[in-house]
Amino acid sequence: MRDLFATLPDEPAPPMSAGYLDTVLTRGRRSVRRRLIGTAAVWAVVLIALAVVIVPGVRLPAQPAAPSHRPGLPDRFAGYSLLTSTVTKAPPGRAIALYGYGNGELFNMFQPLVVGADRDTYRRVDAMDERDRPSALLAPDGTRVLLGDDRGPTGDLLLVDLTTGKRDSIPLGDPVGVRLLAWSPDGRYVAYSAAPLTGSDGTVDFVDTSVAHTGTLRLLDLSTGRSRELPAGKPAWTAAFAPDSRRLAVQVGQEVHLIDLDGRESGSVHITVGRELAANVGWSPDGRFLATVPWAGAGPAGSGGTDHGVFLSTPRNVDFVAVADGDTPPGPVQDVVQLLGWRSAQSIIVAAANAKGQLSLAEVQLGADTRRTLSRFDTGSTCELGLQTCQVFDLQLATGLLPDLAVRNASRPQRGPWPLALTVPAVGGGVAVLLLVWRLRVRHRRRRLSGQL
Q1: Is 231 part of any domain?
Q2: Helices 420-452/20-54 angle, 10° precision
Q3: Which of 108, 264, 326, 349 has the fewest Cβ atoms within 10 Å of its own Cβ atom?
Q4: Any transmembrane segments, and where (predicted)?
Q5: Do 244 and 264 belong to one domain?
Q6: What are the φ/ψ torsions at residue 84 (nearest 5 degrees)?
Q7: For 245, left (φ over 0), alpha (ψ -120 to 50), or beta?
C-alpha cells in the first residue's frame, strides 16, 4: 500500500480562495441557527394550532351560566353551526328561547336549539333529536323542556333539565297520542290533549290530527308526575293558563271554556269562526283578555294540524276578546307571524318578518300599535353547507322571564365543546398537515445548504 501511494504524483493541493474557511464556518453557523429557529417556529405553530383545535373540543365539567339579575335576550341570534354542543354534554343553564333552525331543501340539517337567558350560550336539545324533533314546551322560567313524541303513541313524556342536562321520564300509562297545550306560569302544571291511536301509519302528522279530532284534556302535575283527565269537552283544541295558574282556558270548537284545576267551569268565551286561542300564551297577565289568532291547519274541522315544523314567515293578525262582559279589548295587532308572550298587560312580544322574509322579535304596545325591535335572526345562506337560507320554526320564549327582560349586545356565541366526531379528525388532520410542512421546509433547507457548499 505504501508503494502504491508512492507512485502518486507529488503535487500540492490547489490553494483555497481567500477567506473560504471563514465563509464556510459562517454559513454553517447561520444554517444551524436558521434551522433551529425554523424548527422552534414550526413547533410553536403546531402547539398553537393544537390548542385552537383541541380546547373547544375538551369536555370540561359542566358549568351552566349563573342566573343574572335580569334575564336577557341577545339583540342578534347567532347563525347556524355544526359545532354546537348538546344539553347533555354541556348544560346551558336557563334559556330565554327554544326554537328549530335550519333547512331541509337538500339535506335534513335541522337543529332544535336553546339560547341562554344569562349569556349567549347555544345548545342543541339532543333529546329532541333522538325523538325526531317532536313538539315541545319551554318552561316559563326557562329551566326545563317537556317533550312529547310525534312518531306515534307514547307511554311517557320526557322532561329535560337545562341546568343539569338530566332527563326524567314521566309515565302516561297506556301509550297514547299526545298534543302538548300549555305550561302554567307557576311551573307546576302542564295541560295536554291525549287520545288512543289506532291504525297509525307512523307518519308525523297522524298524532296531531288524531288527537285534535278526538283528544281529551289532561292535567299533568309535575310535582307528583301524575296526570288526570279534566271534563272540558272533546276535543281539546288549544289552551292557555290564567296568570295565577288557578284556571285554564280550553278551546273546544269555537267555545273557550274557563275551568279551574278541579274541572269546574266558571264561564265561557265565544271565539269567531276561523280563529283560535293563542296556544300557551293566550291569556293576558291581568286576566281580562284572551288573544286569538287565525286557525292553524284549517281549524278543528280541518286537518287538525298545528304550526309545528312550519317555517315562520306568514304575517297574520292578533285579535283580543274580553273574558268578562263590560271590558273593552284592545284593537287588533297586524303583521304578526307569531304571538310569543306578554311583556305586560299593555304590551306583547311577537315574531315579525320583513318583505325579504327576515325574522325579528319585537315588542308591541297595545292600542298604540307601536313597535320596538328587540332581536333579529340570521337567515343568511349558511345552512345545508352554505347552499340554503336558514329558517326558524317552533319558536318559544320563556314567558315567565319576559316582564323583566333586558336586551343585551350579542357576543361571540358560546357553543360548548365540539362533537367528538369532529374533534378527532380535526386534530389528526391539523397535526398531519403541520408535520408535512415542517418536513418539507427541513428538506428544502438541507438541499439549499448542500448546494451552497
Answers
A1: yes
A2: 170
A3: 326
A4: 36-58, 418-438
A5: yes
A6: -75, 125
A7: left
